[in-house]
User: Fold DUF2750 domain-containing protein from Shewanella dokdonensis.
Amino acid sequence: MNEVSPVVQRFIANVSESLQLWGLQDPSNEEWLVCDSGEYEDADVMPLWSEATLAQSHCTEDWSNFVPAAISVDDFLEFWVDDLNQDDVLVGIDWRSDDDCEELEAFEIGQLLADVEADED
Assistant:
């Protein structure tokens, strides 16, 4: 990853404060929300937010049965990055209401979050 956009910088800064990411999970079956990419044809994306309130604001309409669920940075790095990469699922950073967000490969976010985790140690 050469240049980090302001959106990604803000996301990483917010996550570094709480050491948590937020996704949307269906409490009835514990499935995580993954949807079609807004940027790439035939690609899936998992929206992630840096704050619970941002995630909560998307629990409407088609996503009304989902609730915000925290993922620790440690768990994301240990379990999620490899799984998302193996499944070719991108990560949508601080998804916005118009379905427009920055979509990155999980390992790119993982590298940035590993730096955050290293700073905490």
